[in-house]
Amino acid sequence: MQSTFAGDIEVTVLRSGREVARVTRPLRQTAEGPVVKFKRQLWLVTGSTIDLDTAPINDDAKEQPEEIVVPLEETYASQDDVISADVDRRVIVDAGPGTGKTYVACNRVAHLIREGVSPGRIWIISFTRTAVHEIRNRLAGSLDDPSEAAGVRIATLDSHAWAIQSGFSKDAALTGSHDDNIAATLAQIKGDEDVQEYLGRVSHLIVDEAQDIVGIRAQLVLALINGVREECGITIFADRAQAIYGFTENETKKSGDISLLEQLEGMGFKGEDLIDVHRTSEPGLLRIFTEVRRAVLDESTPTTARGAAVREQIRQFAGIDAGPAKDFKLAEVKPGALVLMRQRADVLVTSSYGQDTQHRLRMSGLPSRIMPWIGELLWDHTDRRLTRDEFDERWSSNVRTMSANAADGAWALLVEAAGDSDKVIDIQRLRNILGRSNPPSLFTSPDYGDGGPIIGTIHASKGREADDVHLFLPPEDYDGSEDENEEIRVMFVGATRARNRLAVGSTGPRRSSDHNGRVWKRLPKGRIQVEVGRMYDLDAAGLVGNMAFATAASAQNAQHRIRSSPVATGLFASAQKDLHWRMELVDAAKQRLCVLSERLKSDLRDIAGRCDEKRPPMFLQYVRSMGLRTIGLRVDDPSLPYLHEPWSSSGFVIAPMLTGFCMSKF
Length: 666
Prior knowledge:
Layout: E1 3-15, E2 18-30, E3 33-38, E4 41-44, E5 49-51, H1 72-83, E6 90-95, H2 101-114, E7 122-126, H3 129-142, E8 153-156, H4 157-168, H5 178-191, H6 193-199, E9 204-207, H7 215-227, E10 233-238, H8 260-264, E11 270-274, H9 283-297, H10 303-318, E12 320-324, E13 338-341, H11 344-353, E14 360-362, E15 369-370, H12 372-378, E16 385-387, H13 388-398, H14 407-418, E17 424-426, H15 427-434, E18 444-445, E19 454-457, E20 466-473, H16 484-495, E21 498-506, E22 513-515, E23 518-522, E24 527-532, H17 540-544, H18 552-564, E25 567-576, E26 582-586, E27 592-595, H19 598-610, E28 619-632, H20 647-650, E29 652-665
Parallel strand pairs: 1-5, 6-10, 6-11, 7-8, 7-9, 9-10, 12-21, 13-19, 13-20, 14-19, 20-21
Antiparallel strand pairs: 1-2, 2-3, 3-4, 15-18, 16-17, 22-23, 23-24, 24-29, 25-26, 25-28, 26-27, 28-29
Helix pairs in contact: 1-2, 2-3, 4-5, 5-7, 9-10, 9-16, 10-16
């Protein structure tokens, strides 16, 4: 068959009408029509898809030399080695960015299920909620029966730990730090026979981002590995070049912490490598994914020299200068693009300057964004159960943030999480699920906001990708981490989020501080900037509590104003004596929207002490809302008696998505 080549094309691979892969291949023009090679066979391209249910095109001609420039078929052979390995195989997969790790993980699950493993006996542990979202969203498309995806246990390590702890201890409570709760679960695994029997039911364990699991979390995963049966298979994905420890941009690996990978050495795991890059076909980006990765891992070069070289290579291979962050224009950025920064303060400043352009935030410490339709639907529903007829009536009259045709999908989510049947929802069960510190990803958004480009820290955007990425690197003398090697890896992670285009710029020197994760910055003439919008800055009591509002009617009026103006700028907070000096947040009409938390008041007092000031800031300018979210309260939440009705009985409240790097003075 005679053919000519017409450049590369990204195609969607279909089987039984469902997407099973997305690949970039050289496009051939033939007498049969346009074709690409996949799995060593030629397939007719229709639009931008190939259908594996059709017959492949016969290829009786000699291979053309152009097609072997990049050995794409070898990639799928190595992926298939991992995907189709025996059910009881134990393997550590070295997977660099863009090598198809999520694709392999999802198709590994599909293979296990085809081999007879029950979905409920497959556990997937991921380091971040972002990765959980990604795996959950893509798993159904890999399965022969998409409904089986719901049975697979996919969660962060902390969520898995809490599920074990709460399931086997009637006294379980989320108290103390995250590490305290991990330690409590670790003790259960070692000393509770019921927990040990429970772990014995696991047939396959998949661990994602293993390079970031250190300290007590590494101990927990090791205990899980030792707790499952010998015939339980284990697949571990890791990339040492992306080891940026901690949950936030401010954390690093503590001295003496041993990583999970170090503890697994000598335990008989087979090693596999995913080498070929699928995320991009751009030559410069490919060099970052491959050559720069080798430089990152080459610790034979002194750290300072290696860091400077990696920085220069990223700039050179990207080929696009984004300039200084202070000159960045968010309005010129495409929706869906990533704008990545090392420092939280730079994210806040860039978001503030770009507030006239719709965008989203992605960084640690923000509240879980439970979708607002849940609060709209249920804020005044006080019955124990909700029927489908009641749901339809409420959806039609109450929900404004979702279209009418989304009702069936929303009902299906409620049934999956808290259904007594396919016709009745147990509202108390739903409240207990959504009232967790980490509610299920089914009901949450991975981003803070509703559309446009995403501004975030490199840490929080790990595992994500976009066609366009604008990466702003800190100064070469940045002192945000005690580990210079980690800073090299942070740069590499940021640079490998791009599929098509990477622009590299720079931020100014680090001049901000943080207290309990809250960013603040001392300015001349007694002024100060303070971050607002962190996880505990606003709670149900501040929105509909009898301390914040004298009557239920006044609370309802405030809720109406919040819902009527989900995106709002120029909000103003000031400390009020009658609120025990907590801050009242008002809109442009000087109408109270809510009262900010005691936690914020305490942090402001502590920051004043660090500045040797006797009195904390008494006002905050330039607070804003980026949209709406829902707060869900467990049935035993201690704040319920202090809320007005109907919220005290319903347990659902609408809240604004507050943010701001706010100005004030001492």
